[in-house]
UniProtKB/TrEMBL annotation:
GO terms for biological process: prolyl-tRNA aminoacylation. This is proline--tRNA ligase. It catalyses: tRNA(Pro) + L-proline + ATP = L-prolyl-tRNA(Pro) + AMP + diphosphate. The keyword Transcription regulation does not apply. It is an enzyme of class 6 (ligase).
Length: 326
């Protein structure tokens, strides 16, 4: 039997993982800044497909896409006590712009609750403005750990975050259930094994009343958190003064939720779950190429065969498939 070209996935997982990322031309770790990696074109093809799956499901459930600035004023971060306590040691801080010291420090978003709620306080005035269901597909930044691993534990990672506001706690709790259903549908399609766990108080998202996580089951026996959804109650709407007037003319605070989908970690879970000792294996829907054409050349017929192969390549591409002539 032919010897596998990669280290054994079970016995030498770390070496296997690093070699798959390199040999499949997915990730380059030689950028020179710890915790920051380069997503090569092959990886970005898969990343876009993952984004598309989740964004399609979110839009079906009436979420609308937005884009917030990358930077958050430090004063915003400090307005929710539990939230700042959870993130203050992880944020990247900007203190200067050119040669000038900023009047107020800015942080690179570790997550965007403290960015969106000041805006919701401007947008939400009446019960007619609710529910408000928003999402953005961005990178976030956390100086979390010294032990970084590509896609698994980085200081910049790709994700989708939703931010939702509702008139009642019942509607907000129903949103948590909907988030879990969206994640299940996509992860089932990606062929990932997972468990759903409600996090204990010490492990909840900073500021959340309840947190639920999708943990992907890895072949080496470990779990990888790939998505979380959080019931926030009124813990953010109150400090950020997000209020609406209900049908009786009474001003009230909405109940809010957020949903974080780890795109970088989902990519890692796909690679780890489906790959083998011969290299990268992908579900068909995530394939870098739908079709690969391999011409078999005969002596004296080389030009004719290549010409025909290129014609087939053109036909297949025009039909909407991604194709490679090998």
């Amino acid at each position: 039997m032919e010897k596998a070209p990669l280290p054994n996935k079970v016995r030498e997982f770390s070496k296997w993982y690093d070699e798959v990322l390199s040999k499949a031309e997915l990730i380059d770790i030689r950028y020179g800044v710890k915790g920051f990696v380069v997503y090569r074109p092959n990886a970005m093809i898969i990343v876009k497909k993952i984004y598309d799956l989740f964004e399609e499901e979110l839009k079906k459930k009436s979420h609308k896409q937005m884009l917030l600035p990358l930077v958050i004023p430090m004063s915003n971060l400090k307005r929710e006590a539990e939230h700042v306590k959870g993130f203050e040691d992880q944020v990247f801080i900007i203190e200067r712009a050119g040669g000038d010291v900023l009047e107020e420090k800015l942080v690179l978003r570790p997550t965007s609750e403290t960015a969106i709620y000041p805006m919701m306080s401007l947008w939400i005035k009446s019960y007619k403005d609710l529910p408000m269901k928003l999402f953005q597909s961005v990178a976030v930044y956390r100086h979390e750990t010294k032990a970084t691993r590509p896609l698994l534990r980085g200081r910049e990672f790709l994700w989708i975050e939703t931010h939702n506001a509702f008139a009642t706690s019942e509607e907000a709790e129903a949103q948590i259930k909907e988030d879990l259903e969206i994640a299940k549908k996509v992860y089932d399609e990606l062929g990932l094994a997972f468990i759903v766990v409600e996090r204990e108080e010490f492990d909840r998202f900073p500021g959340a009343e309840r947190s639920f996580a999708y943990d992907a089951l890895m072949p080496n026996g470990e779990v990888l958190q790939i998505a979380t959804t959080h019931y926030l109650g009124q813990k953010f709407s109150k400090p950020f003064e997000v209020m609406f007037m209900d049908e009786r003319g009474v001003n009230r605070y909405p109940y809010t939720t957020c949903f974080g989908i780890g795109i970088s970690r989902t990519l890692a879970a796909i690679i780890i779950t489906h790959g083998d000792d011969y290299g990268l294996v992908l579900p068909f829907g995530m394939a870098i190429y739908d079709i690969v054409i391999v011409p078999i050349l005969y002596k004296g017929k080389e030009k004719e065969v290549i010409k025909k192969a290129r014609r087939i390549e053109e036909i297949v591409r025009n039909a909407g498939y991604s194709v490679k002539l090998d």
